[in-house]
Design brief:
Layout lengths: L6 H9 L6 H10 L1 E4 L5 H18 L11 H5 L1 E4 L6 H7 L2 H11 L3 E12 L6 E4 L12 E7 L10 E4 L15 H13 L4 E3 L7 E5 L4 E3 L8 E10 L10 H11 L15 E4 L1
Antiparallel strand pairs: 1-8, 2-3, 3-10, 3-11, 4-9, 5-8, 5-10, 6-7, 6-9
Amino acid sequence: MQVTVDRTSLLQELEEEYTVSPEVVAFYRKNGYVKLKNVLSPEVLQYYGDVITQLVFKLNTLTKSMEERTTYERAFLQIMNLWRQDETAREFVFSRRLAKIAADLMGVEGVRLYHDQALYKEPSGGFTPWHADQFYWPLSSPKTVTVWIPLQDTPMEMGPLAFAEQSQNVEIGRNMEISDESEKVLAEELASRHFNVNDTPFELGEVSYHAGWTFHRAGPNTSDAPRKVMTVIYMDKEQTITQPQNTYQEADWATWLANYPIGSKPESALNPILFDS
């Protein structure tokens, strides 16, 4: 029997505010991440997750066998800016609910979209090495945050995201791309400095937000099902573009920031404001 979906109620949920307590904000700012339960309903995750999954398999171009792939390629299928491919995916990415949480955590008046990306770790997919996202971003301020949204329950065998608490405050490893080397060097450095690592499952409806300079990783997917995750990267609406420091930032400047001038706000159609108080 076909189930009728009430799109109006789903869209309403994506617009409604989620209350972020002062304690949650304090935890995020101290530790560089926070996990929040019951942010999205099973109905929203099912409906939009099905659309996102269809897009991932439609747009994916990584067809090499797992044995032929690099460590990075084994970590996940990565499909970016789904909002520009499909109107329903756009509804999810443009969620005011999710964007306002990002603004509240960072303590800013509004946030722009940097880009979205689906990260699907296939069965037998490998670990995701330790890294900090902002290595890749030519942005002047650390006021950036990513929401990581599992589209299913994510037990340990699926490889949930793990965070090194308070690592956003140290400058070790900020010059390292995601790689076998970053996994080795950062694992040793974080352990030697006694950073606590939060490596725990995600319930359905639970999401995490992590700052651009927070070091994080994920284990391999040893289950028989894909670990389906959607992410959205936000930046302070007052963020400005800085001179790229590496070839990856050069590429990001062109791809996600439309080569807007150094020192300017990224105000192209690629970077709409998703929440403004």
